[in-house]
Design a protein that fits this description.
By secondary structure, the chain is an alpha/beta fold. The protein is built from 7 helices and 5 strands; from the N terminus they run E-H-E-H-H-E-H-E-H-H-E-H. A 5-stranded parallel sheet has the order 2-3-1-4-5, sandwiched between helices. Helix 1 packs across helix 7 (152-175). It is globular and about 50 Å long. The relative contact order is 0.23. The model has no long low-confidence stretch (mean pLDDT 92).
Length: 177
């Protein structure tokens, strides 16, 4: 059984940094969720237009199918995806077990980080729309909340530790302990 991690949160919370750390330190197959967006979605976001649910469903389905394909190869995966609503997380985990790492921080901190980011299709002006629809990870969902306070290295370290703890728990489940 492979392990599938989705690093979630609003734009600018550090998803790309965390998925890279998990890939580098744990050897997971990486996918940037943004790479799965159709050009129409990228064009909308670049123009400062928030995506609708109708825009997101096909995108979430493609990410889910990518993880299912990697499951058949027994590859552990890590994917960055905003996964802002519970329904989106349910779509991502359809027909498979996904563990979510929710990168959580204040709108002020994330706005500051977004203003320092260069060359990304997601403009800082869309951040309020993301916080508006954000449904934080619930205690009954498969995942953990990780604070983005501190340096990018601190956040990445906490995320890698969370994945290692999840891997250990999964091994214990498989071995029947």
């Amino acid at each position: 059984m492979a392990i599938h991690i989705v690093v979630m949160g609003v734009a600018g919370c550090g998803k790309s940094t965390v998925v890279e750390a998990i890939k580098e330190q744990l050897g997971y197959t990486l996918a940037e969720g943004g790479d799965f967006h159709p050009q129409a979605n990228i064009d909308k976001m670049s123009a400062g237009i928030p995506l609708t649910d109708a825009d997101r469903w096909p995108w979430l389905d493609v990410i889910n199918r990518w993880m299912i394909a990697r499951e058949s190869l027994r590859e552990n995966t890590v994917v960055s995806s905003s996964a802002l609503k519970r329904a989106y997380r349910e779509a991502l985990s359809r027909d498979m077990n996904v563990y979510f790492l929710f990168l959580s921080g204040s709108e002020e901190l994330i706005r500051q980080r977004l203003s320092e980011r260069k060359g990304h299709f997601m403009p800082p002006a869309l951040l309020p729309s993301q916080f508006e629809i954000l449904e934080p990870l619930s205690s009954d969902e498969n995942g953990v909340k990780i604070s983005i306070e501190g340096s990018a290295d601190d956040v990445a370290r906490r995320a890698v530790e969370a994945v290692r703890a999840y891997e250990k728990a999964q091994r214990q489940v498989i071995s029947g302990r």
